[in-house]
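MODEL INPUT / OUTPUT PAIR
PAIR INDEX: 1
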Amino acid sequence: MIDSHCHLADQTFANDLDDVVRRARDAGLERALVILEAGNDAEAAQARRLETLWPEVRTSIGVHPHQAHQFADEPQRAVDIVRAQFAATSTARAVGEIGLDYHYDFSPRDVQHAVFRAQLRLARELGRPVVIHTREADDDTVAILREEGGGELRGVLHCFTGSDALAEAGLALGFFISLAGILTFPRAQALRDTARRVPLDRLLTETDSPFLAPIPYRGKRNEPAYVARVVATLADVHGVSPDAVSAETTANFHTLFRP
């Protein structure tokens, strides 16, 4: 199994990172993709510590739409920071998470667009995949991916909670769809129905930890070991064994991120 999206460099894990890694390995995880906020020195330091505990871990670096406002006057500065940190991080494999968030609108939408576009162009320059965050912004996210992708962009729609239409658009772009603990929630039947329509060879599993712990851990801090619950639910949805889902999603991860 692989947790294709987690925030192990978050300070929430600072005091027991060793135990979190041990539980992940005990649960059968091969590796995880850890998301880093570009320019966040504390996260970068914890990521370096994590590399010594779990050498198989890989990272993704980007400016989240919540932080896009910091680059309102100069979106290219966001790119410069990501590029420099990417070059200095041997485990870096993707640009992200990046995208649009109209739910909170912590950054003006035009600024979100500019910073998002700039980072997509960087991903194309680097030849790296992107990790996409989209919330209540699906039409604009897809439009920008189409405009900036140039037929070259690879990536994943992370923590997918969208519609059939968004899934179809993502698949048409050649993207993978990643499912998190929300898939296990009792009221998430519509999401499970959508997940059933996505071929296994285009799916990834994630925790987005420390957020969104799956059933039966809901309300607790999430961690990579709990991705096993997402795998089990996805197996039920597709009518196959958890081992089959683990094998397929692990292969998909390697195809996309080439770790």
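PAIR INDEX: 2
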Amino acid sequence: MKFVLSSYGTRGEIEPIVGIGRELLRRGHDVQMVVPPDLADFTEAAGLAAVAYRIDSQALIEAYRKYCAHYFESSWRVSRKKSQEKARLARESSLLGAQCEAETRTTLMSLAPGADLLFTGQNFEHPAADVAELLGIPLATLHFTPIRVNGQVSTFLPPVLTALPPSLLRAAMSATDWLNWRATSKTEDAERRKLGLPKATGPWSWRIAERGSLEIQAYDGVLFPGLATEWARWDDQRPFVGALAMELPTEFDEEVLSWIAKGTPPIFFGFGSMPVESAADTVAMIAVVCAQLGERALICSGSSDFSGCVPHFDHVKVVSAVSYAAIFPACRAVVHHGSTGTTAAGLRAGMPTLILWLLHDQRVWATEVKRLKVGAGRHISATTEKSLAADLRRILAPQYLARAREIATQMTKPAESVSNAADLVEGLAHARRAG
């Protein structure tokens, strides 16, 4: 069978779908990957044919990061200047997003004809849904946090609304979906008209569900108690498979494990694809706080440039990348930006967690680790030496470690998650052929 897998975002959004693609290829299927230009080499290194589309993901992520930083830091302050800046950043993100949407439709229209299934990540799933609708092929989507209407948790609503009672939260999410659709319906209908599709009759998220599309939840249901029960009527369409990861080794793992073995287990600090404002200041703050606490620090710079600020501290080590699967179990706790994959890796390793978040979905995971009593969370702009020391003291308490180890026993293993996800998309494609 032929599968077209399209995903856009950073490494954290691409690796899960690459893992599924590699498993489908291993099973003998024809797999075509569609990914951002800056992750095409990573995809091809996994043995998959890759078509690059849209702009480098880091450009869009940076625009979105700037908007979110302004949104969360100043949304409570009302001034003309700040309102204008927020509007400018929103327009910048919107223009880049529109460019990506248009290119998604064009690229997928050239690749998806004859496919047995079109699989897309949650970023820009609506243009992929239009293409699948036009071609009459099954659609599968991959969600990293709960983004469909529910009464348990909301990824994109303002923080003040997330504490609403379940019935009101569901109503707020439904209203937000509808209002967003009404605000963009003219543009969307123009794009659908180009494809020869009729006008949309409701939000694209509702249409995807009504078509019977597969909406794979790439996280463990245990992390959101009550969500599986609420979505019981969507059980076949919204299965929970756990976070998807390939657990690839890095060239630094052996060196890092050797350093860890020479002292006490360190606290891991990682920033993933979210660049820090000042690498030097960040390293200095971590070094000072860990010295106060008598802890060692392992800093993974990710996409940030830490060159030139490698600290001269015996208790601090800086590397550009590590395998979370190999390194996290040897640590004492983990501090990171709060992506789905990094959060899951920490929980699978039984690590107490501190999430210093910036984006909407990262805020969700910060909230969940607090609710599960396995860690704490704070907006990164509100982090100081004093707050970092206090947060680390909190999560290093014995009860957080005990609770984290308890949750670890309930997490799905990565290989099982990938296999289950591949089974689901393979089954949907088989059903389409049989029908």
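PAIR 2 NOTE: The chain has two domains: 2-58+98-243+414-434, 253-408.
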